[in-house]
Amino acid sequence: MQPPGANAHLILLTGPHGAGKTTLLGQLVQQAKQADWTVCGLLSPAQIHNGRKIRLHALDVYSGGRRLLASRVVGELDGPRVGDWIFDSDALAWGNALLARTPPCDLFVLDELGPLEFDHHRGWTVAFDLLAKPMPCRLAIVVVRPDYAESLLHRCPQAETVTAYKPAEADALARQLWEMYRNTP
After folding, report:
1. Which structural domain, as residue segments, surrounds residue 84?
2. Who has the most CB within 10 Å: 15, 21, 118, 175?
3. Is residue 159 part of a domain?
4. Using N-to-C axis directions, what is the helix angle for 21-34 and 170-181, rounded to 10°?
5. What domain count does the chain have?
6. How far is 148 from 115, CA to CA, in rounded Å?
7. What is the pLDDT of residue 76?
8. For residue 70, what are the β-bridge partners?
9. pLDDT in tens, 56-72
10. Is the Cβ–Cβ distance between 120 and 107 less than 8 Å?
11. What is the pTM of this model?
């Protein structure tokens, strides 16, 4: 992720809850790995029970390391709270440490920046430092909640915003983004 005038492409991926943003990023990560790209960053896949997200995990896409990030299960975690989600402070520290030492890569992904970061100054706050300085990568995609997209775009005016609307469109949008950026130097 590079500041204005640098070569990396920065995409802010936004869209409503359940639009398939994490699925889309996961598909891009797989396409990039199949093309022998070096991929770094964090995904936050959900665990779903009876059609409802009950847990979020933090997944290091480079190493495959995984931590329980957040839960809606009462009493399971004791950390910062946003709505009915309770986050694990140790998982947040682990993720921030990974972000702080992000190596040069072809694709960087971060899922997601939202109220925990913008309103509570917790969560993946190291991402703001990453976005503010040059980071050698071909493509960086950061998921941002729609309510915060304008604020992040103000911090990163070089970014392009892409909106995902429906999970059924995630495959097509992932293929489209891959085709647009796979030959990026």
Report:
1. 9-181
2. 21
3. yes
4. 40
5. 1
6. 8
7. 96
8. 56, 87
9. 999 999 999 999 999 99
10. no
11. 0.92
